[in-house]
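Support case: tryptophanyl-5'AMP complex. Customer-provided input:
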Amino acid sequence: MLDEKKVVLSGIQPSGNLTIGNYLGALRNFDAFPDCKCIYCVADLHAITVRQVPAELRRRTYETLALYMACGLDPEKNILFVQSQVPAHAELGWVLDCYSMFGELSRMTQFKDKSQHHADNINAGLFTYPALMAADILLYQTDLVPVGIDQKQHLELARNIAERFNGIYGDTFTVPDGYIPTTGMKIMSLCDPTSKMSKSDPNPNAVVYILDEPEVILRKFKRAVTDSGTEVCRGEGKEGIANLMNIYACFTGKSDDEISAEFDGRGYGAFKQAVGEAAAECLRPIREQFTRLMADKAYLEEVMKKGADQAAYYARKTMSKVRRKVGFAL
Ligand code: TYM
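Agent response - structure generated as follows:
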């Protein structure tokens, strides 16, 4: 541990516009640790494992940082930074590549999925990506990692790498735990409730973006795929309704029983309208604050610079330990 406080770290790739999946699964939990040292990165090194348009990547990096702040993360109380601006991530990433096994990296389901989607660009970065993510986490002696359930496998690999390294060289890295929310851990597509809502989905109707206008949010929920029934409850073949119940529960704090009672006899139309309204209402202040922050690029750059300096300070401590243990010339 750095200081005495527990360390919380997470990151989001600026590889598309952020969705309510990113928000409910991760971002909204980032400020749930008032007594911890919280470190959040915009994971741009990860984003280039898939081909990006450079100007768009840069713009989304600023936007993601602004969204962190618009969601309530105060840069005076949290370390907010851009991953590529702290070179120790790439440095430790390489070291950990050498402690990650081909077999375990081959088993990563995200690697298998992405290889299928980007068959023309199955690059080495896509394959070793979980070792870089382990570096992000282990560099800060992280205790807790707030993420959605899709990152659980990567997190377990980070734990294995930490334990392997510690086993060889003695105590070097804190072994991190995940912080995965129960209700928002996997928000599904509105067009296909059996697949995850993803910022890279080419169909914008499948995805609600954090920055969507209220009318757009209402329209998308109105069109959400459900089933031919009428009852708002969970059950066989009701994945669409279950997903909407999860989203509504996250935005309102209501339980399944309360939701079922509220829409008893009112049908899916009224329920979808209410989910849309709840989402639009919660996201409105975030969008407004985001717009204000994006108007001041100089301020965002100041935050980035300060965050990178703070992160680099802690990263250096771990790196000098790693350099010593591995046997690099000092
Ligand atoms: P990324 O950018 O794919 O997603 C960012 C966060 O959002 C969560 N998430 C979801 N949660 C619920 N429902 C969904 N549909 C949904 N979609 C995404 C993800 O679980 C994640 O928490 N490799 C990471 C970024 C990363 C990172 C890190 C995370 C880089 N370094 C270090 C933690 C620690 C990623 O690609 O997340």
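Residues 9-13, 21-22, 24-26, 43, 46, 133, 136-137, 145, 147-148, 150-151, 184-187, 196-197 surround tryptophanyl-5'AMP (CB under 6 Å).

Case will auto-close in a few days if no follow-up is received.
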